[in-house]
């Protein structure tokens, strides 16, 4: 049996719609094993939206690898241990896709290169900003091209923390993409290009004072925040508590605030504020570091199945 650990991820990071994302130290474990025949899928904790047949996202990701390399297991057992909350903007689908591809590649003897796995994952997810950090870790700048992903990975220092606010409701990426406008104004495109460029420079040089300005966005948040009644309150309380920028995580509804030194004081202030504020939803709050490793082998146990 092969066991793979794959991180959560947060896409966009403010202005970098569909091209910037970071892996986070919150993990799903995917255990896979070739069996004599059939497909057995188990999951804990379970969720009605997790399919137990060929429609399961991890299985579908694994199948893209089998189709690509022309090798198929006789049967397959998949066990999912899920820490990443579903449909909350923390890359649960990307973890399934990147983790499934990574696990399938191990199962079939490592026929695909890392570049090929990154491409397959981005193609399946439709954009590379969650799938690439889930696969290789770090903070990633990535563009999906016709046959490859062009990307740069930046290893995030532990000093930078990601304060994650997770509400008790879900928002599917599909829905949150469908509400975006087909066209945007030229000045809004210019606004985002400047901020995304500033963000890349600020994060890689450690000039965190620029982050509050660099995490502003006009491409998706103005539209999506209407689906998240507490958005402005959470962003404002984070900035007042000293965050270096706060933004929607991926397609939402989770919100992430960037915190530098003094994160313990920030954490206490936010917890006090959350306890005393009137909010439309219940919000979980946790402080995470970036994961710089991506999908990794958790354990390998030999199987009795003979070829
Ligand atoms: N552990 C899992 N096992 C199987 N399927 C999963 C699992 N986690 C998520 N999924 C599938 O992915 C869907 C959620 O994907 P969606 O893209 O809407 O949200 P997300 O990936 O959590 O958010 P975002 O893409 O904004 O970061 C679920 O409805 C389910 O079909
Ligand atoms: N860039 C994507 C991330 C969600 O998977 C979006 O915002 O729709």
From TrEMBL:
The protein's enzyme class: transferase
One Pfam family here: GHMP_kinases_N
SUPFAM superfamilies noted in UniProt: GHMP Kinase, C-terminal domain (SSF55060), Ribosomal protein S5 domain 2-like (SSF54211)
Top-rank lineage group of the source organism: Bacteria
Compartment(s) where it occurs, according to its Swiss-Prot or TrEMBL record: Cytoplasm
Residues annotated to bind ATP: 85-95
Known EC number: 2.7.1.39
InterPro entries xref list: GHMP_kinase_C_dom, GHMP_kinase_C_sf, GHMP_kinase_N_dom, GHMP_knse_ATP-bd_CS, Homoserine_kinase, Ribosomal_Su5_D2-typ_SF, Ribsml_uS5_D2-typ_fold_subgr
UniProt catalytic activity: L-homoserine + ATP = O-phospho-L-homoserine + ADP + H(+)
Ranges for domain GHMP kinase N-terminal: 56-138
One Gene Ontology cellular component: cytoplasm
The protein's annotated pathway: Amino-acid biosynthesis; L-threonine biosynthesis; L-threonine from L-aspartate: step 4/5
Signal peptide: none
One annotated GO molecular function: ATP binding
Keywords, sorted A to Z: Amino-acid biosynthesis, ATP-binding, Cytoplasm, Kinase, Nucleotide-binding, Threonine biosynthesis, Transferase
GO term, biological process aspect, one: threonine biosynthetic process
Keyword Membrane: no
Domain GHMP kinase C-terminal: residue ranges: 207-262
Keyword Transferase: yes
Biological role stated in the UniProt entry: Catalyzes the ATP-dependent phosphorylation of L-homoserine to L-homoserine phosphate.
UniProt family annotation: Belongs to the GHMP kinase family. Homoserine kinase subfamily.
PANTHER family to which the protein is assigned, alphabetical: HOMOSERINE KINASE, HOMOSERINE/4-DIPHOSPHOCYTIDYL-2-C-METHYL-D-ERYTHRITOL KINASE
Designated name of the protein: Homoserine kinase
Biological source species: Caldicellulosiruptor hydrothermalis (strain DSM 18901 / VKM B-2411 / 108)
Gene that this polypeptide is encoded by: thrB
